[in-house]
Design goal:
The chain is mainly β. The protein is built from three helices and 33 strands.
Amino acid sequence: MKRIVKISCIILIMSHFYDSLLAQYTFFTPKESFAIEVSLPDTDLKRLPVYRNSISSLIVTGDYIIGGTTAVQGLTPYIFVASLKKRQVLEIKDINEVIPGQQTIPTGFCRGSNNTLFAGTIANRNPNGSEGNGHLFRLDIDQEGGIVIIDLGTPVEGEGILSLVLDSENNSLFGVSYPSGLFFKYSIDSKEIRIYKDIVVSDKQIELLKEYELGPSDYLCKSLILSGGLIFGSTPVNSLFCFDPKKDIFNLFSDIPEVWGRRTLGQIESWAISSSGKIYGGNSGDGQLFEIDPVTKKLKNLGKPIGMNRLRGLTFGKDGRLYGIAGGHPGYTHLFSYDEQEGFKDLGNPEFTMAAPGIDQGILWRGFQLGTIASSQDGRYIVMGEDESLSQLLIFAIEEKYEQRIGM
């Protein structure tokens, strides 16, 4: 009997690893899909330069795909605009021209009234190794795709901005600073700033996290979401919080779903809201997806889309499915879908034809390291951005059926 159980366990383990290995070589190639060349060295086309083009923030407004990038230390990021219809980059702008000394735009974009966007930055470190001042900024895109950046200043001195959400009811931005994890409020109308220390990481927690060789990027909340008038996020160690802007009250209401022994890795990396109002969250530490009822705050763990950590982005398509990016270096990121009836479907790596104009038009471009995902406002298109040294956009339209093929 023991021998049978042992053999069954070995078969189960081998099957899991075979499925994981096979998924590494599964390429997702739906009929209506294409890649847009955003980055290319040594060209007079409107392209982003190498090492400054990792796409860390993404949003779609009408026909325009708007992206913000991350640069390597010492270099500065860009804002770019591409067109879904023309399938090409329309405009790029070095943020250093308006806000000097920044390194990354990690917050995503918050959509305000009249399609005005807001985002935040983390600065390059100072020569002495200390953190620079991150900035909030307003972003306006004109009818031709022109980019206007307005600096809103630094909400927390000596800190960057890791995550951001807009509360349109009181026209305020709320965010989490980096590296201390301070929660702040910025009133857009009055420009007043308020800093909250309720969820800041304590010295005792920092000592615990250091034992596991974890830094702020490993445990601070990377994404915030507003639902039912409450702001949801995470705080060390492995806790979910909600904040009521009207009452100025924080509530730690649940643990983040975890794998035993990996509690310190709990960290929210992504959120999405369904049409029914349910909140879906991604735990970076274990790559688990979960859902929350925003009224009862009851949490349900939905499991892991793939056998890796990270859940880097989530968005809904018009078919009602949740699409997400899971995994990452040293393996590949995988595109997956989820709905209550089908469960998870690992779609593997996108492989889309590069659209003209550009040097590489007509080739098949494979997205092995994806960092961001967003849907068009009507939910028809899913847009993904790479986070490599030469990053491009990959786009597909929602269809009833998808074609997949296996490649080596």
